Amino acid sequence: MSHDLLEDLKALHTAAIDARSGYEEARDDAEGRDTRPLFQELIAVHTKNADDLSHILQRSGAPVGEDGSFMAAVNRTVMSVRSLFGALGEGVVPALIEAEKHNLARYDDVLKSEEAPPDVREVLATNRERLEAAIDRMRALKA
Hints:
Blueprint (H helix, E strand, L loop, with lengths): L2 H27 L6 H24 L10 H15 L8 H20 L5 H25 L1
Helix pairs in contact: 1-2, 1-3, 1-4, 2-5, 4-5
């Protein structure tokens, strides 16, 4: 695998960990609210995606971190602040949809590359489908 592809995969992996961290904070702060199951679902999606990407990176001999980036701390802080103001209810869903659309765009960019072998493309497509399904469920909540 090329260096560029490995860097792209690491970025996707880090983004999944960062998103999961933010959703864990939101879940913990949303005790008793209708959005708690949504946050739990999003944690599961990003955990599975991070695990899939981790396996690819490990197979390629790339180091895999589980701490995320500085954005993990930012995501946790944002969710915590929103919780203080009671914004982790249904009103947060449009912002989550937009955030997940950015994650979809990251997958689209990597999938456009012809460097990824078929088995990697298959994992990326599956991860992307999970995100898209989560977005569809959030849109249904919003409606």
